């Protein structure tokens, strides 16, 4: 019995040392369908306390969100963070624009890339990192044409069919 307690303590210590890891709050699933993602970046978000508590409840939507760079600052538009249930008067506008925390070189690089025709900055995922900070994965994206979307759907269907046939064959 004492041995199992030691094993449990060692496992708990290892888990504590490794940290909880990345906990996803919300993903923008339509972004990968609508865009080709060329590069991804990790950015922090400037939030209020009630917004962070609301994100702990996973009350967030990234569906129509986008990022802009204005006056050498990156801004996140269109993200809806639901008001915190116990926030009362401290809740802020759920659809307000939020500043992204990026390095100056990253902002300048993204600004230069966004000046090219056909590129956009799209949020892909919002999550808590290992240190309980809210982070956002943003992607530098090019829009897909209708035939690109159809080709992706056909490719996914064929991959699914191949996997099904291989699974039946390996039984």
TrEMBL record:
Family, per entry: Belongs to the SmpB family.
PROSITE patterns tied to this protein: SSRP
A single GO BP: trans-translation-dependent protein tagging
Listed HAMAP family: SmpB
Name this protein carries in UniProt: SsrA-binding protein
A molecular-function term among this protein's GO annotations: RNA binding
Lineage: Bacteria, Bacillati, Actinomycetota, Coriobacteriia, Coriobacteriales
The entry's keywords: Cytoplasm, RNA-binding
Main location: cytoplasm
One GO CC annotation: cytosol
Species: Candidatus Olsenella pullistercoris
Domain of life: Bacteria
Subcellular location: Cytoplasm
Function according to Swiss-Prot or TrEMBL: Required for rescue of stalled ribosomes mediated by trans-translation. Binds to transfer-messenger RNA (tmRNA), required for stable association of tmRNA with ribosomes. tmRNA and SmpB together mimic tRNA shape, replacing the anticodon stem-loop with SmpB. tmRNA is encoded by the ssrA gene; the 2 termini fold to resemble tRNA(Ala) and it encodes a 'tag peptide', a short internal open reading frame. During trans-translation Ala-aminoacylated tmRNA acts like a tRNA, entering the A-site of stalled ribosomes, displacing the stalled mRNA.
InterPro entries listed in its UniProt record: SmpB (IPR023620), SsrA-bd_prot (IPR000037), SsrA-bd_prot_CS (IPR020081)
């Amino acid at each position: 019995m004492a041995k199992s307690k030691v094993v449990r303590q060692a496992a708990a210590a290892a888990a504590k040392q490794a940290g909880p890891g990345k906990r996803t709050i919300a993903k923008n699933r339509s972004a990968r369908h609508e865009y080709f993602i060329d590069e991804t970046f990790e950015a922090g978000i400037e939030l209020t306390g009630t917004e962070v508590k609301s994100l702990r409840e996973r009350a967030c939507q990234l569906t129509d969100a986008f990022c802009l760079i204005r006056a050498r600052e990156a801004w996140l538009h269109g993200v809806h963070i639901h008001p915190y249930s116990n926030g009362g008067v401290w809740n802020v506008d759920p659809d307000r624009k939020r500043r992204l925390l990026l390095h100056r070189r990253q902002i300048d690089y993204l600004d230069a890339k966004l000046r090219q025709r056909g590129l956009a900055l799209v949020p892909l995922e919002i999550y808590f990192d290992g240190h309980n900070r809210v982070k956002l994965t943003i992607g530098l994206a090019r829009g897909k044409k209708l035939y690109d979307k159809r080709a992706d759907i056909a490719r996914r269907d064929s991959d699914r069919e191949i996997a099904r046939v291989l699974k039946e064959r390996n039984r």
